[in-house]
Amino acid sequence: MASMNVSLPDPMRDYVQKRIDKGHYASVSDYVRDLIRRDQADTENEQRWLSSLDASVEEAVEELESGGGRELGAFCRELTSEIEAQGHQTPLQ
């Protein structure tokens, strides 16, 4: 296993030591490994989310290019009319 040296300001070092003293981690190395694992998981989740978003946008563009979808202004006007028909005030009134 490789090693790395890390410099921390005193307040951060003290915080890590408190986490170890409370039994949350066995050592500084254990703490850093946990942070790295969490960061890796967050990065992977973010990449999955972005890939899903890209696919969704691509699907929407394809739908629009094939004649699907609706014009936003018309949709908003229809929605506003439906809300008003139900007796609700629109924010602009």
TrEMBL record:
CDD domains: RHH_NikR_HicB-like. GO terms for biological process: regulation of DNA-templated transcription. Keywords: Toxin-antitoxin system. InterPro entries: ParD (IPR022789), ParD_sf (IPR038296), Ribbon_hlx_hlx (IPR010985). Belongs to the ParD antitoxin family. This is Type II toxin-antitoxin system ParD family antitoxin. It comes from Novosphingobium silvae.
